[in-house]
Amino acid sequence: MFEWWRRGGGDHIEKHDDRVVAFATRLSAGRHEISYLARATTSGTFETQGTWGEALYLYAPEITGRAAPTTVVVR
Predict the structure, then answer these.
(1) How far is CA 61 from CA 14, 33, 40, 44, 56, in A?
(2) What is the pLDDT of residue 36?
């Protein structure tokens, strides 16, 4: 029953045309992964921005995370 609280998890996900925003009340240490389905409307090679995260519940600028940018090829 308390396993979710120990490891944490997403509370809310917003899907916009240009971004996906995820919110979590609590996250345990380590790697966390969110996946979603995107529809390709134009073929080509695209550069995506790197993802980032920050602690907002209690303002703590030292708690952040980043991932590298990625190249996406749509054929």
Answers:
(1) 23, 21, 35, 37, 8
(2) 79
